[in-house]
Design a protein that fits this description.
heterodimer, A: 377 residues, mainly alpha, Amino acid/polyamine transporter I, B: 65 residues
Chain lengths: 377, 65
């Protein structure tokens, strides 16, 4: 096995929760408000449904092929070469998403906090820490996350609650003013963030009780959707849909608007703390899955040799992929959802169909052929 | 100056990883490491000296639309 660590279902759920929420909370409000106006928060709820569909497919595949990661059962199902090709496609996807996350981080820091610092300074420092975390292993990332999740959720919830005096709930009325179509169109963006639950396909075999995966993942999707909806309702109620759509990072300005008795102000530093912590976890998880997948496809005995080179590749990509923050927002809003749907919905359903066809028509048995090392570890 | 720092970083990565793999006689891992490392170095140096490479994001954008 490439990974000797084990994480509990609760840790898995928390890891997925932070992974989905970290970048979604900064980018989703502006993009959905642009597409759905004041119904943006309903789009998030609709989007989380897609996440649950992906989750169901991932856990079905995981239970059908116990003890195997996405990369391993792709080979079991499709055969050696086709499976490796599919695995490589996922590695490429993870590398690409890591680069985009790191770019989002750098852009947020340069536009909102330190405009004179070059982008590469943030990108490089984040990746150095993430590479270090990945070298330490999945258990270390999960335990770090157990601490950070408390910090992150407490800060986000209290900041949203503190803003309630500024809320103007009439901004949210009327519901469904333009019919359900804009909501469904806008839900593509949150659904692509919720679809990141596909990472569970790589992590599932390292759970102490893999049968709890559906519960852990479901809690992660529903929990992050709830907090994201709360954040969108908050920023809509403070600014109104037009203003939210015009910002790059509404949450940041939303938090800036809080002031309690002239004394408690400038909460945006807290948002920066949650953002740095969340993005660190998210980058580590994606880099971990990419490294593990690549090592598994190439048949290595450990994933360590690929982590540092992947780190350099991602640093370069994070700088060269986009020209500016506007490009990032456009890519996430328009190109990314259909592209990501291929990986979060298309390819898993292909794997399920092939599994069922091979079982029913050709009589292949999958469950017994799996190694039972996993139960002893 | 930037190029010098970059080369320094790339060389230090080899010093960090390669001897460990060579001593453990993990030749397959060593080969994979050097292949990936050369690709990464090529990308990084191309970025620093300002060489124009095809951008995967633009390719994807064209494919999707």
């Amino acid at each position: 096995m490439l990974e000797n660590g084990k994480i509990s279902p609760r840790q898995t759920g928390e890891l997925m929760f932070i992974t989905i929420l970290a970048t979604a909370i900064l980018f989703v409000p502006a993009i959905t408000a642009e597409l759905a106006g004041h119904d943006a928060w309903l789009a998030t709820l609709a989007g989380s449904f897609i996440g649950l569909v992906t989750l169901w497919m991932v856990t079905w595949l995981g239970h059908k092929h116990p003890g195997q990661t996405l990369f391993a059962y792709a080979e079991t199902i499709l055969g050696k070469w086709l499976g490796k090709l599919l695995g490589l496609a996922y590695v490429w996807l993870f590398v690409q998403i890591t680069a985009i996350i790191v770019r989002e981080f750098g852009d947020f820091m340069t536009t909102s906090f330190m405009p004179n610092t070059p982008l590469s300074a943030f990108n490089l420092s984040l990746l150095v820490v993430a590479v270090w975390a990945v070298l330490a292993g999945l258990e270390v990332i999960s335990r770090m996350n157990e601490f950070l999740i408390l910090l992150l959720v407490t800060i986000l919830v209290s900041v949203i609650l503190l803003s309630t005096p500024n809320w103007e709930l009439t901004y949210l009325l009327p519901f469904f003013a333009n019919g359900p179509l804009p909501i469904l169109v806008a839900s593509a963006v949150p659904s692509s963030f919720m679809g990141e639950i596909i990472l569970l396909a790589t992590i599932l075999p390292f759970m102490t009780r893999p049968e709890r995966a559906l519960l852990a993942g479901g809690a992660a999707v529903v929990g992050s959707a709830a907090l994201l909806t709360l954040a969108i309702v908050g920023s809509l109620a403070v600014f109104g849909p037009e203003l939210v759509a015009s910002f790059s990072f509404p949450l940041h300005l939303f938090v800036r608007s809080i002031s309690i008795g002239q004394l408690l102000t400038r909460f945006e530093v807290l948002v920066m703390v949650t953002w740095v912590a969340g993005v660190f976890i998210k980058t580590s998880v994606f880099l971990y899955c990419a490294s593990l997948g690549l090592a598994e496809i190439l048949g290595l005995s450990q994933y360590r040799p690929v982590v540092l080179p992947l780190g350099i590749i991602i640093t370069v990509f994070s700088i060269s992929f986009f020209q500016s923050v506007v490009d990032v927002k456009e890519f996430i809003g328009q190109t990314f959802p259909p592209y990501f749907a291929i990986f979060s919905l298309g390819l898993p359903s292909l794997l399920i169909v092939v599994t069922v066809v091979r079982e029913k028509i050709f009589g292949t048995t999958f469950t017994q052929s799996a190694p039972d090392k996993i139960n002893k570890g | 100056m930037l190029l010098f720092l970059l080369v320094l970083a790339l060389v230090s990565i080899v010093i960090l990883e390669a001897p460990r793999l060579a001593f453990a006689k993990l030749w397959r891992e060593l080969a994979v490491f050097f292949t990936l490392w050369s690709f990464a170095s090529f990308l990084a140096i191309a970025q620093v000296i300002g060489l124009e490479l095809p951008n995967p994001i633009e390719l994807i954008t064209q494919l999707i639309q």
